[in-house]
Specification:
Layout (H helix, E strand, L loop, with lengths): L1 H99 L6
């Protein structure tokens, strides 16, 4: 009969120990999940800020690209004018060279 009571006591101690073990592990898991949630939240906020900065930089780059395209158009027009002026000057020099042939030298 005493063996029954000893076995019952061991069973109760094991049950209480198991419950305590489960409770401790559950609390540790809860703390770990809370820490993970906080870390994930901070990381997601960092990623969101990086995304916002990327959007801002993209808008800035698009504006700069538009300015660059306008500058390239102006450059093309200026180069066309320079080419025209150079051709006119070359034609004028050629005409002047031909005209000098008829001007007597001293």
């Amino acid at each position: 009969m005493i063996a029954f009571w000893i076995a019952l006591a061991v069973l109760i101690v094991a049950f209480v120990g198991g419950v305590a073990f489960v409770i401790v592990r559950a609390l540790e898991t809860k703390r770990a999940v809370t820490g993970l949630k906080d870390a994930l939240g901070a990381e997601l906020r960092r990623i969101a800020r990086a995304g916002e900065r990327t959007n801002d930089e993209l808008e800035t780059a698009q504006k700069a690209f538009a300015r660059l395209e306008a500058s390239l158009k102006r450059l093309g027009a200026a180069r066309a004018r320079i080419r025209l002026i150079t051709e006119v000057l070359a034609e004028a020099r050629a005409l002047l060279t031909r005209a000098r042939a008829f001007i007597p030298s001293k």
